[in-house]
Design brief:
By secondary structure, the protein is α/β, with parallel strands linked by helices. The protein has two domains: about 10-85, Quinone Oxidoreductase, Chain A, domain 1 (Alpha-Beta Complex), CATH 3.90.180.10; about 90-165, Rossmann fold. It is built from six helices and eight strands; from the N terminus they run βββαββααβαβαβα. The strands form three sheets. It has a three-stranded antiparallel sheet, with no helix packed on it. It has a three-stranded parallel sheet with strand order 6-7-8. A two-stranded antiparallel ribbon has the order 3-4. Helix 4 links the parallel strand 6 and strand 7 (about 130-135). Helix 3 (about 90-100) crosses helix 4 (about 115-130).
Length: about 170
């Protein structure tokens, strides 16, 4: 299995029925490939498709020489968005969606997990006006990365558990 689920690429081949893309287009895409035929897909609830496969998880991923995805999953990238920025659209979208699902303005926020999504969610929370952002993790390296973001506190999860009797 070839991994990789965050990617930017160039269209080098187009299916016979695909419209809206041309050879050479700079693209990225949604990594959850849905069937398009089940009840949820037909109702427009593709996020609930039981037949979902993941790029780089259940099918060959972005570190392969070529990546094949349905046109439905692909989107063109504007020239003013760098490859580096476009490559993080997937985790950044998750972070923004999660952080903005709650009214966090003026609140204290705990984010468990100082991985890419957690650190980006902390940045979004801080940007919209949370009072304090605390990030917990068991990985010191990730906590150091989070600390670089000047968040209020970064704590190892096991220390927090001890303070909370559990």
């Amino acid at each position: 299995m070839v991994v990789g689920h965050e990617y930017v690429g160039e269209v080098v081949g187009i299916g016979q029925e695909v419209r809206g893309f041309a050879l050479g287009d700079r693209v990225s895409g949604e990594g959850h490939i849905t069937c398009g035929h089940c009840r949820n897909c037909r109702a427009g609830r593709t996020h609930l498709c039981r037949n979902t496969t993941g790029v780089g998880v259940n099918r060959e991923g972005a570190f392969a020489e070529y990546l094949v995805i349905p046109a439905f999953n692909a989107f063109k990238l504007p020239d003013d968005i760098s490859d580096d920025m476009a490559a993080i659209f997937d985790p950044f979208g998750n972070a923004v969606h999660t952080a903005l699902s709650f009214d966090v303005v003026g609140e204290d926020v705990l984010i468990t997990g100082a991985g890419p999504i957690g650190i980006m969610a902390a940045a979004v929370c801080k940007h919209v006006g949370t009072r304090n952002v605390v990030i917990s993790d068991v990985n010191e390296f990730r906590l150091d990365l989070a600390q670089d973001g000047c968040y209020s506190r970064c704590k190892r999860s096991n220390r927090i558990a001890k303070r909370c009797d559990g």
